[in-house]
Amino acid sequence: MPPFDLVIFGGTGDLAMRKLLPALLHRYVDGQIVAGTRIYGIARDERSDEAYRERVREAVAAAAAADPRVAECVDGFIELLHYRRLDLSGEAGWPEFAAEIGNDPDRVRVFYLAVGPGLFAMVGDRLQAAGLSGEGSRVVVEKPIGKDGASAQVINEALGRVFDESQVYRIDHYLGKETVQNLTALRFGNALFEPLWKAEHIDHVQITVAETVGLETRAGYYDQSGALRDMVQNHLLQLLCLVAMEPPASLAADSIRDEKLKVLRSLRPIDNGNAAQLTVRGQYRAGAVGGKAVPGYLDELGHGSHTETFVAIKAEVQNWRWAGVPFYLRTGKRLSERMSEIVVTFRQVPHSIFADLPNASPLAPNKLVIRLQPDEGIKLWLMHKVPGPGGMRMREVAMDLSVEETFGGRQPDAYERLLMDTVRGNPMLFMRRDEVDAAWHWIDPIRNAWEVNHDAPKPYTAGGWGPSAAVALIERDGRTWHEDE
Ligand code: BG6
User: Fold this and answer.
1) Mutate to test the pocket of ligand 1, among 175, 211, 415 (most ligand atoms within 8 A of CB)
2) Whole domain around residue 254: which residue ranges?
3) Considering 120, 276, 404, 412, which has the largest number of Cβ atoms within 10 A of its Cβ?
4) pLDDT confidence of 277, banded at 50, 70, 90?
5) CA angle 411, 406, 368 (to 5 degrees)
């Protein structure tokens, strides 16, 4: 890949230091970022290139310590870094910066807005005024794109005034995770699953994204957002789309995005009338996670709040393929373990020939478990005869494919793939504007229903699996949340 320019607004922030710069370092180690590339950190305070480089050196120290190949490359990588102070509310520094970056249409310029969504429009306007928004320029925006449909529209319109849609890359980092990409490989690279991938053969789908962390350092953002906006609107819905979408005609970005959009538009609306039956919101209280005592959400926050840190939803995709198949979604903070997985439970065999055997235990339905993190892998649960002379005894066992054991090596972080895709100009793993709009269109009435119905979040003890109402949500239907042994 030829040299390029990557400009990170919010260049000293948490995302840049924890995710973006370590990801870029790894791409440099693998030779995808060559000499002549310039990586700029932009922020408001005065700082020299040297001071910035030192800060980044500390930020990537752990990555370097973990792998001698990475450690060897740190000096070369650091050389590519620059720091510029730019004022978003004024002109200061912009003409010089614009002259330095230039507007060569043949050199890729990626502007990464690792800043709050309230600043997206302002940065866009500045880039345009500085002549930096033309051909060759791309802009990357982080979620959340707004806090509801209306505010997302304002942001998208502001970006749209400066950039063509093809220049806008809306990141959902879940789409960059290896195992999430593997969903597409699994479904459309194998003849085995697709014929069964429909209501006729699938009983239900579960999508769980469980975290052990609490508020971390993000109280200001998180308390305004809550789990529905922070996780469901984007990550969980995107996973649901990849499970439920029709086979796209090709791997072309719009081919896939068109199919995802149709899923979002087929979601059964949830509003005041049915939110109480189909959704559960929770907020963690003090407890223990991994044997360590942790405070409750309100103690961490220091004031009262009705923000949810847990959501469970029974969703439905209303189309021919999925009619009547529930998609149970749940996500929360301070849960028992960090674990994200998709569980596809198939229907029971239509008739059991084993039922009359003495001590027959019921046949368990087949399940395909796609583990996104940690221990990435796939398990296919099957009924199997217990070996030995004890008759036709059956047990549920898993065919177990661990990504690490099968492929070895390190798993690249989602941001590595996504950052390089922005440079390559491949929008496949980014959200198109209409997808964001459609996701908000489904989310907003849920939020609204909670407000109108005064549905305060139900307390749950940190270290568990959320409020008991989330268990009831699925057990009411005669099903249970999947638990791996
Ligand atoms: C982010 C959310 O998008 O995803 C965070 O804002 C959450 O609240 C994070 O912790 C989870 O990402 P991952 O990759 O650790 O599962």
Assistant:
1) 211
2) 177-409+431-476
3) 120
4) very high
5) 90
